[in-house]
Amino acid sequence: MKISILGCGWLGLPLAAQLVGEGHTVKGSTTSVEKLAVLRALQIEPLWLQLTPEPKGIGWDYLLDCDVLVVNIPPRLERAGPDFHAAQMRHLIELMKDSPAQRVIYISSTSVYPELNREVKEEDVVYPSQSAAPTLAEAELLIQSLPQEWLVLRCGGLMGYERIPAKYVSGKKNLTTGEVPVNYIHRDDVIGVIKAFLQNPSVWNETYNVVAPMHPTRREVYLASCTPFGYQPPTFITGEINPFKIVSSQKLLDKLNYPFLYSNPLQFLYQM
Prior knowledge:
It is a single chain. The chain has a single domain (2-159, 184-214, 245-267), classed as NAD(P)-binding Rossmann-like Domain (Rossmann fold, 3-Layer(aba) Sandwich). Helix content is 28%, strand content 19%. It has helices at 12-21, 36-41, 60-63, 77-80, 84-97, 134-144, 187-198, 218-224, 250-256, and strands at residues 2-6, 25-30, 45-48, 50-51, 55-56, 68-71, 103-109, 119-120, 149-155, 157-159, 184-186, 206-210, 246-247. The strands form four sheets. It has a seven-stranded parallel sheet, with helices on both faces. InterPro entries: NAD(P)-bd_dom (IPR016040), NAD(P)-bd_dom_sf (IPR036291), NAD(P)-dependent_oxidoreduct (IPR051783). One of its GO terms (cellular component) is cytoplasm.
């Protein structure tokens, strides 16, 4: 299978490397000239491409000559402004309309969901007006407007390996969100889900939440990952009530029957 990955970052690079190892022909884009050699060393055909939001770089037609395109570019909403990512997607859609690409996977985020103090499912956010991140919801709709087969994967907070929850709160005092449930997903499971979808075309043209089925509290997750890696435990203000959401992965379980490697964020694999 010819697979192209737009965005070979923390998720895209190991995904590409695994796909190469399984015998697929993989092209990968990066915005870093220095990273081209890294991709080449992993037998990923490297391309320097950017969406600024206009497409820049040479090789867009070559990237889009594929069976499957994985769109994995972080929206960076705070840095680039609320409309930037949707503008990126509009330009990409124009490139894709007449391209040979047959299928597209868009890596979205559970940040599309507002904190409704309950479990949320895919149908809770369909339109930008329903979303806590309207530009992401708009980007999802743009992907769905393509003539190609599509998948929208709303990933939870990506964790695993050197992304250790305690790293981000070590030594902090009086945190108020300790009782908020987490919506995390291990990187290995995102890669596993994508590979499972590649083998199951009958369940495409849908939006799926990609989140670990279990939702311990932030306090539990932070404290569990402190001692093993030498981080100073944070302290919490008890009794604080904060808005929350519990993102359901039931649709993924029902339709794909994916066996999670790490269903409980308290048992994620980390490495310093």
